[in-house]
Design goal:
single chain, alpha+beta
Length: 368
């Protein structure tokens, strides 16, 4: 009962906060055209591991990159047989932020791709990071900070977290900038993170009201185009600085999201249910075998016989009788009523699925 009360309080809290949602800044609703990050990736080598590196027989690519690295440093290892256990081949990933300049640091993530057991205490040697166009934009190097721990003995091993992946804060340095002239833009597109015609129209009205003239135009549900020249401001950066903090009330689609693993239900205030009747109950069937062994009398010629005995029981657990939900009822009211009846969150999810299947739930239903 206490769990149901807590769940009811949570649902009503979510509903009340949604109903009284405050306006949102434009910068939190849209992405500005040209203002985006770029993914970088590199293939490198981690050294200094305490015997937890790749087994070179199972990861021949580690031996290849180690040989090429040593030869590039002037060490000839052609024809040599070496099987070090303190090296591991890794992928290095990073995100190049917009307008990043040469010499700025980047955080990088290092992940083992071979059969290394741990990257704890390892050092990433100089690794170039490439973008999708194949050009090098940064170089990474440094000591890895792994988020796990591993201990191995003769007969057992203990692993906590993921020791085969780690990060290097400020481990990369930008060597090349993205060729993009932001100041030359005459028009700027605002891409809505959640496309909606009503929200796009409100953004258009808010921007035009702010400048006192028609400078913004909604082209579709996900795009608002801004005419920078019409704002009489020469710098696009100054234009974005003025409009990104304008408050707009976004419009959302009616949506219900449920998580079956945790029993979580989240809904919006616009979810409505048509007139429908609901009945729910649990039927439990138990079958128990209890065979009986019958022994013959002493000094008789009889045989031992096993007599089967089966107990069958059908139990109808308490549930919800046939209940009618009037049309136009909000989903939060239905959930509150189900909680008052002591329905568990998982049973509630099954009821909502059935209401959606009947066509009475007017919302997008998402199950995770």
């Amino acid at each position: 009962m206490a769990r149901s009360i807590i769940w009811l309080a949570f649902v009503l809290l979510v509903w009340s906060q949604t109903a009284t949602a405050a306006p949102i800044r434009i910068k939190d609703l849209v992405e500005f055209d040209g203002v985006r990050s770029n993914d970088l990736v590199g293939y490198g080598l981690v050294v200094g591991l305490n015997g937890t590196g790749d087994g070179l027989r199972n990861a021949p690519f580690t031996e290849e990159i180690l040989s090429s690295t040593l030869e590039r440093l002037g060490v000839n290892v052609t024809g040599e047989q070496f099987r070090p256990k303190n090296v591991a081949a890794v992928f290095v990933t990073a995100s190049l932020p917009p307008f990043a300049r040469a010499g700025s640091p980047l955080d990088v993530t290092v992940s083992a791709i071979g059969d290394a057991n741990s990257l704890l205490g390892g050092t990433l040697i100089m690794t170039p990071l490439n973008a999708a166009d194949g050009d090098i934009y940064a170089v990474a190097q440094g000591t890895i900070i792994a988020g796990g721990a591993a201990a191995t003995g003769e007969g057992a091993a203990v692993i906590q977290g993921v020791p085969t992946a780690g990060v290097i804060p400020s481990g990369a340095t930008i060597e090349r900038e993205v060729a993009f002239d932001f100041t030359a833009m005459t028009r700027l597109r605002l891409a809505l993170r959640t496309p909606d015609f009503t929200t796009a129209g409100r953004i258009e009205q808010a921007i035009n009201h702010h400048f006192g003239r028609h400078v913004a135009l909604m082209t579709d549900s996900g795009t608002v185009e801004l005419n920078i020249a019409a704002t009489h401001i020469s710098s696009p950066a100054h234009v974005i600085g003025r409009i990104e903090n304008i408050l707009v009330q976004p419009e959302r689609r009616a949506r219900v999201v449920v998580d079956q693993r945790s029993g979580t239900i989240v809904m919006g205030e616009d979810v409505r249910i048509s007139r429908v009747a609901v009945s729910q109950g649990n039927l439990t069937l138990r079958i128990q075998e209890a065979p009986l062994v019958v022994q013959p009398n002493p000094f008789s010629l009889g045989e031992t016989v096993i007599v089967p005995r089966t107990n069958v029981e059908i139990q109808q657990e308490p549930g919800i009788g046939l209940a009618e939900v009037p049309g136009g009822t909000s989903l939060s009211e239905v959930v509150a009523g189900l909680n008052a009846l002591g329905v568990s969150p998982r049973d509630m999810i099954d009821i909502l699925k059935s209401i959606k299947a009947s066509g009475a739930l007017h919302a997008e239903f998402i199950v995770r």
